[in-house]
């Protein structure tokens, strides 16, 4: 049995999920720790976080709070603590633990270990010093810290991380929630994809899976929002939105720079069709931008957000484009907008724009039914301004 599988099996048993037993005794934890060196004693995490002091709280997720800590060896850690009252958080917590136990990549956040102590369930990660991308990108007083080189490196790093998840990890993993707040930046500004609470394993023998909708307003692909039709191309769409946000410094879900544009995606596409795509560039990039790279990345972003998922490139192709910088790229078709339809043909055909802003809805709840490989239904609760919906 592989080391990662041993870790996964021990993690599931230790956390007590799928069993009436809520964890092991201290002797069992010590034995597993010696085998895996990935189990943290609860007392160690209490000391590292100063008893989970409010001043060390980094944020709050669907699973519960996240705390910063420092181990006696000097390593800084982030500790996710499962909320005992959240059933949804319990699902996300265990999902993240199972998936990250198998994952190791420079551009994916590193799970250091776990802890089970009575009813307490905790996951321990490397602490990423620059926090999340959204706290820099969407705050004008800090956006200048992201010059073009850093933004281009983030674009490339996230692409490599997604390629790993889609094609090079033990199983194909669809993240389902790629967005600026789920990209962490370390002390060298290396981007790391985080928050796998909603990620899904993807069957190798299927072109897509049908699932209940979960994601974030402004980043979700239209075929997924409307029909629950999930494939790796849903992550590609979210990545395209992220690329355009990095270039413009604007959040798609709250875009309002142009009254004639339905969204950031619509604005970027209209400027591109007029040959004025560089006008969408964040003014703070004026002194550092490499215009050829910016133009290439705009086109990549537009290719990724096309309405027809079959027209979107794979992450492998995106990584190749970013590394080889080809002189000729295909023309992107109109961006996907939830609520509209696309039809496939030999000539790329985009979506009508009758349903409002991409990734947004005037209603807080969207329900849809579909027939693809069968009849099913999808539902979501949408939260505004880049926040995550919760499954109903």
From TrEMBL:
Region (Disordered), start-end ranges: 327-392
Protein keywords: ATP-binding, Kinase, Nucleotide-binding, Transferase
Entry-linked CDD domains: STKc_IRAK (cd14066)
Comp. bias intervals (Low complexity): 365-379
Gene3D superfamilies associated with the record: Phosphorylase Kinase, domain 1, Transferase(Phosphotransferase) domain 1
Pfam family, one: PK_Tyr_Ser-Thr
Transmembrane stretches, start-end: none
A single GO molecular function term of this UniProt record: ATP binding
Biased amino acid composition, Basic and acidic residues: 382-392
SUPFAM superfamilies: Protein kinase-like (PK-like)
Biased composition (Polar residues): 351-364
Domain named Protein kinase: residues: 52-328
InterPro entries: CR_Ser/Thr_kinase, Kinase-like_dom_sf, Prot_kinase_dom, Ser-Thr/Tyr_kinase_cat_dom, Ser/Thr_kinase_AS
UniProt-recorded name of the protein: Protein kinase domain-containing protein
UniProt organism field: Rubus argutus
């Amino acid at each position: 049995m592989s080391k990662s599988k041993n870790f996964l099996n021990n993690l599931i048993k230790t956390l007590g999920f799928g069993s009436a037993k809520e964890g092991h005794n201290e002797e069992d934890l010590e034995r597993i720790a010696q085998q895996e060196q990935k189990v943290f004693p609860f007392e160690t995490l209490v000391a590292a976080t100063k008893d989970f002091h409010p001043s060390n709280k980094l944020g709050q997720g669907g699973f519960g709070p996240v705390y910063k800590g420092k181990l006696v060896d000097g390593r800084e850690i982030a500790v996710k603590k499962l909320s005992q009252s959240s059933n949804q958080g319990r699902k996300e917590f265990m999902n993240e633990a199972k998936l990250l136990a198998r994952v190791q990549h420079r551009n994916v956040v590193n799970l250091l270990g776990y802890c089970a102590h009575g009813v307490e369930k905790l996951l321990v990660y490397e602490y990423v010093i620059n926090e999340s991308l959204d706290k820099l990108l969407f705050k004008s007083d800090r956006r200048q810290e992201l010059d073009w080189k850093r933004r281009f490196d983030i674009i490339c790093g996230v692409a490599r991380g997604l390629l790993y998840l889609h094609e090079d990890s033990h199983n194909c993993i669809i993240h389902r929630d790629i967005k600026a707040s789920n990209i962490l930046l370390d002390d060298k500004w290396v981007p790391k994809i985080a928050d796998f609470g909603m990620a899904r394993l993807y069957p190798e023998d299927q072109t897509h899976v049908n699932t209940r909708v979960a994601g974030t307003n402004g980043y979700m692909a239209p075929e997924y929002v409307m029909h629950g039709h999930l494939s790796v191309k849903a992550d590609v769409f979210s990545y395209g939105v992220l690329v355009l946000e990095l270039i413009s410094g604007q959040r798609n879900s709250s875009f309002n720079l142009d009254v004639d544009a339905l969204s950031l995606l619509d604005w970027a596409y209209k400027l591109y069709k007029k040959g004025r795509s560089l006008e969408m560039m964040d003014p703070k990039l004026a002194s550092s931008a490499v215009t050829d790279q910016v133009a290439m990345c705009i086109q990549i972003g537009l290719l990724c957000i096309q309405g027809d998922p079959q027209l979107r490139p794979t992450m492998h192709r995106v990584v190749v484009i970013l590394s080889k910088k080809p002189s000729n790229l295909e023309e992107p078709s109109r961006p996907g907008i939830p609520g509209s339809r696309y039809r496939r043909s030999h000539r790329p055909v985009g979506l009508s724009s009758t349903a409002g802003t991409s990734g947004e809805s005037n209603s807080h709840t969207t329900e849809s039914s579909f027939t693809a490989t069968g009849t099913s239904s999808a539902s979501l609760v949408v939260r505004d301004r880049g926040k995550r919906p919760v499954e109903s």
